[in-house]
Please model this.
Amino acid sequence: RVRIGGGAGCETADSGEDVVVEYRTLASSVYTLITTLAHDGYTTAKTVTLALPAGAQTSATYIRWRQLSNSGSSLDEWALDHVRISASAYNRHHTIQFQ
Model:
């Protein structure tokens, strides 16, 4: 599950203070965008399920979440909870799932 701002004692994230999900493979030092989680779309915890792009379906892939900008060290809290990365051996459909 993902939440951006909106918690107790937390300032709501401002425009441009989105969280991105990115990946890179062991063969690269450059991260590639999977998706952008908009600052105003996750003020309450929500489950998000994303398909892992074909380029990320390797035996050594790094996944990261980061906020592109923020209003300061005591503002713009965001949270990830129950992160699960899974793949089906039967249909080779890979997913990133936040629970």
About this structure: Residues 19 and 66 are 5 Å apart (CA to CA). The two ends are 5 Å apart (CA to CA). The beta strands are 2-4, 19-25, 32-37, 48-51, 61-67, 78-80, 83-87, 94-98.
